[in-house]
Amino acid sequence: MRLLIVDDEAKIRQLIAKYAVFEGYEVAEAGDGLEAIELCRDQHFDLIILDIMMPQLDGFSTCRELRKFCATPVLMLSARGEEFDRIHGFELGVDDYVTKPFSPKELMMRVAAIIKRAAGAVPGMEDGKEIYTTTGLVVDFTARMVKVDGEVVDMSPKEYDLLFYMVRNRGIALTREKLITAVWGYDFYGDERTLDTHIKLLRKRLREHAGLITTLRGVGYRFEDQ
After folding, report:
1. How far apart are alpha carbons 104 and 109 in whole angstroms?
2. Which CATH number fits domain 124-223: 1.10.1140.10, 3.10.290.10, 3.30.70.1400, 1.10.10.10?
3. Domain Response regulatory, which positions (predicted)?
4. Is this structure's pTM higher than 0.70?
5. Beta 74-78 vs 174-175: how paired, if at all?
């Protein structure tokens, strides 16, 4: 298991790394958000420990950029304990939140819990393929194929992209802005009706399983993990 520790304070990174290595994790470090983003583009990590208060690019902005191409679990660190920070972090898809000063032992317990939870949530490997299955639905990421009740369903490229992103982030409230950015890109010039139309089409493709996509009024959508 590989961890990425992102904090502008070297002593904090070293403290976390010491305990992480003791627990058997491989560790990489980044001193700021920009470096973390570059590392995540080139390498795979099982979890990212991300500080909020950093120069150049803070933890929230870093997480927002990471979520455009990466679904790796994130545990956020902060010297502040405001409820707004926690809510904002969870809205961005953060998995857990720890306030400084923290107990390194407790931090490692939280890391283990997140990785264990993520292992049960990410698609499994079957014959070398990355696949997610639930009742009546099979999403084959490797083959870029979706089956509903055993029947292959044809979808447009954007429908595949949207469904794949939602499945990878299932159980998480996804704002319309986040979905549009992740699927259509940051420089998308359309409007939210494009997203709503694709959600409607996806529900039609899923047939009696359309309820897996839940509308969150005033927020966006969530893919329910059964």
Report:
1. 9
2. 1.10.10.10
3. 2-115
4. no
5. unpaired
